[in-house]
Design brief:
This protein is of the alpha/beta class. About 55% of the residues lie in helices and about 10% in strands. It has helices spanning about 10-15, 30-40, 50-60, 75-90, 115-125, 135-145, 155-165, 180-195, 200-205, 210-215, 225-240, 255-260, 270-280, 280-290, 295-300; strands spanning about 1-5, 25, 65-70, 95-100, 130-135, 150-155, 245, 265-270. Strands 1-2-3-4-5-6-7-8 form an 8-stranded parallel β-barrel, surrounded by 7 helices. It binds erythose-4-phosphate (E4P).
């Protein structure tokens, strides 16, 4: 599994590259905004082109740097993708261009299909595309068919979407125990069916309450962000697509583990999460004891 870092902050990129485990960087307009706000606090003037070139150089030729387009019309996205690719790919031959899977925003007068159009044109030009804002397996399949190099399912955003539908309150970094929620739902449904067993099958099938039990705890059959990744991995493997699944929108270490178990090719991880993944109270206690127990005879060996 490749590990990317989900940030545009140079400090975080530089530090994480020293660990020897990072294979790439993903950015988006919000991450670039956050990075620039940080840099501006230090009073520095930023030259955007030089800043991104430095990221590309640091990541190097064996890695990948994702940069996102900002327009929504196919022709403009194609132009922007070519501009970004021409400017930054020569640095270390590591650019992937992010294109949204759906370009529709109410009131914007742009349809749904521009993303797909741009992906297919750019893929045919051999520009690696990272298809972003993927929220369903079918979006991922369409992106793969259009020639995407990566598809990025947004896990936390799906977790939040399902929990909001269910009115479950949560903290932004919480792991969503959808398995527990599903067990509760299934128990409640069984009880409801038992209490209404005198009704016909047809009536129960159409019953509003039954429908609510069945449909509100998923997004059209996707139970949570991890489930989204699993379903995409399953579909793409079935047809031997070369497209890699790049699990994105990660909030906690359990998600990291579950993505690894699901067999996704790549995960992009926010900087803060690495510390959480390394920390364990028993590791700390064990380390403390080892440090205290070093005998002089052994210490002398290392002088
Ligand atoms: C990565 O490529 C994505 O842009 C990123 O993970 C965004 O997700 P988030 O804003 O929900 O964290």
């Amino acid at each position: 599994m490749k590990i990317f870092i989900d940030t545009a902050k140079l400090m975080e990129i530089k530090e994480s590259l020293k660990w020897g485990i990072i294979n790439g960087v993903t950015t988006n307009p919000s991450l670039i905004k956050a990075a620039l706000e940080d840099e501006k606090k230090t009073g520095k003037k930023i030259n955007m082109e030089e800043y991104i070139k430095e990221i590309c150089y640091l990541v190097g030729k064996n890695g990948s740097v994702s940069l996102e387009v900002i327009s929504l019309q196919a022709e403009k996205m194609i132009e922007e993708a070519q501009t970004l690719f021409k400017k930054f790919n020569p640095v270390a031959n590591n650019i992937a261009i992010k294109i949204p899977i759906d370009t529709f925003i109410k009131g914007n007068n742009i349809g749904h299909y521009d993303g797909l159009k741009a992906i297919s044109v750019l893929a045919r030009m051999n520009i690696p595309i990272n298809v972003t804002l993927v929220m369903t397996p079918e979006q991922a399949l369409l992106a793969a068919k259009a020639g995407a190099r990566y598809v990025s399912p947004f896990m936390a955003r799906i977790d939040n979407y399902v929990r909001e539908k269910l009115n479950i309150s949560f903290e932004p970094m919480d792991y969503y125990e959808s398995k527990l929620e599903r067990e509760i739902t299934s128990l409640k449904l069984t009880q409801y069916l038992r209490n209404n067993s005198h009704q016909s099958i047809a009536n129960l099938y159409k019953d509003k309450n039954v429908k609510e039990f069945v449909y509100t705890n998923s997004d059209n059959g996707v139970y949570d962000g991890i489930d989204l990744v699993k379903q995409i991995v399953e579909i793409l493997n079935k047809y031997n697509f070369k497209t890699e699944v790049l699990a994105a929108s990660v909030r906690n270490k359990r998600q990291f583990r579950e993505v690894a178990k699901a067999g996704a090719g790549v995960i992009t991880v926010p900087f803060f999460l690495f510390k959480e993944m390394l920390q364990h109270p028993k590791t700390e206690i064990g380390l403390k004891t080892f440090c205290e127990n070093v005998v002089d005879e052994y210490r002398d060996l290392l002088k």
